[in-house]
Amino acid sequence: MKMTDGEKLIVLMLADISKRLQGEREVDPDFVAQTIYADQLWGFDWHFSGIPFERSEEPNPVVKETVDILEMFSSTMYQFQQLKHSEQKQVRDDVGFAAHGLDEFPGFDGNHDPHYGVANYLVQDLHRFKDVPGATNNSHTQTSLPQYRKMLVYLPMRTKLGTGRFSKEDIIAIFKGG
């Protein structure tokens, strides 16, 4: 979705008026305002899926990559918890320092990475990825995103999830980036 600056101002003013009216609302004016303030206009399409908004040909690449990364952590954390305790220890030993990502998502760099704002918006406003501890963390380092991109070897592996679980070797491969 695209909005001109004037349209954003009009929508914000309507949201403000809506907040002052008594009665039940179908559209949350706080959500509308936050979506505009955060400049995450794609969120309207996700939140109001019944409204036929004009779709762009290509999804926002930062949004798509953020969703892929958070989905990867969500699935991998869950699959890790399904392993036997002895297998979990083997994974932690083999993965080393990166194993902290099995318990809590390290986050995106809040100062230099637009994925950080997308992740915060997904969790706080769209209520997605609540199962990922630390999904809104600030990693304070620009090295996190390149590491997550290496870990996206997960994408072709996720087809296994329809027929079973990740093995400890799968989880190690993901956290080592292939």
Low-confidence stretches: none
Mean pLDDT: 90
Helix and strand content put the structural class at: mainly alpha
Helix % is 40-55%
Mass-distribution shape: elongated
First-to-last CA distance: 36 Å
Strand tally is: 0
> Major sheet: size, sense and barrel closure?
none
Order of helices and strands: HHHHHHHHH
Oligomer kind: single chain
Rounded to an integer in angstroms, the radius of gyration calculated over CA atoms is 19 Å
Brief summary:
The chain is mostly helical and 178 residues long. It has helices at 5-20, 29-37, 42-47, 61-82, 85-95, 114-124, 144-151, 154-157, 168-176.
Q: Mind explaining what this structure looks like?
A:
Helix content is 54%, strand content 0%. It has 178 residues and is mainly alpha-helical. The two termini are 36 Å apart.
